[in-house]
Amino acid sequence: MKKLILSVAVAATSIFAANAQADSDLIQFGVKGGVNFANLTGDDIGDTKSRTSFHAGLVAEVPYSERFSLQGEVMYSGQGFDVESSGQDNFLDNDDNIEYQLDYIQVPIMAKYYVVEGLSVLAGPQIAFKINEEVDYQPNADAGDVDLNEAEDFEFGIVGGLEYKLDSGFFVQGRYVYGISKLLNESEVLGDPSVHNSVFQLGVGYMF
Questions:
Q1: Which CATH class, in words, describes the domain spanning 2-207?
Q2: For the chain, is the Cβ count within 10 Å smaller at the N or the C terminus?
Q3: More confident site: 102 or 141
Q4: Which element (helix H / strand E) includes 94?
């Protein structure tokens, strides 16, 4: 898996660098942010509730023709899931949802096709680097964090979605992110579970 991630990163860097040398005046850079509706999916995951979090980062679009571009991004993404709890039956004695917080730095490289002026379809691979994993049983307070190390440090996934960009540079996006590689480490307790990240992202941004 690490060799696959490295190969994708090297290939993407080479493509962007080659086109940047030829058409540097056409490359657009921007910023973006928005809301995440994250959960886990798979044969070995029970009934969980979507965790609402956010994503934010940087965008670069490299055009190859009037309709086709490559778009790369580097961003923070808050993921995981929620478990509803109640102080009546919860030994932690709180009425908040318990959050499994799984946060990443994501690097998607997407093909971008303009269907009509302003409206585009995006799809491509993504690598993600885990930066935080914890259970928070008091998500509305500063306390309650319990650090974990059950998830893999790297994830390979796919991304697909739509974007609409105005002439002013402002844009809106909607996309779905699915983790292809397994999420959890193999262990004597968990075995080799089939669990994957599943995230819907809605965002806005601006191209300079």
A1: mainly beta
A2: C
A3: 102
A4: none
Give me the half-sphere count of Cα atoms (radius 13 Å) on the Cβ side of residue 114: 15
Q: Structural domain boundaries of the chain?
A: 2-207
Measure the CA–CA gap between 107 and 5, rounded to whole angstroms.
11
Q: How far is CA 190 from CA 42, 72, 183, 185, in A?
A: 14, 35, 12, 8
Phi/psi of residue 161, each to 5°? 180, -170
Q: pTM for the full model? A: 0.79
Q: What are phi and psi of 18, to 5 degrees?
A: -65, -45
In the chain, where do the E strands start and end? 28-41, 51-63, 68-83, 98-116, 119-136, 145-147, 154-165, 170-179, 196-207
Backbone angles phi, psi at 195, to 5 degrees: -135, 140
pLDDT digits 0-9 by tens, 75-101: 999 999 998 655 444 444 454 678 899
Residues 6+ apart with CB under 8 A from 99: 51, 80, 81, 82, 83, 135, 136, 137, 139
Tokens for 112, please give them: 């971008």
For residue 67, give Cα distances in angstroms to 11, 12, 18, 175. Answer: 22, 20, 19, 19
Distance, CA of 151 to CA of 39 (rounded, Å): 14
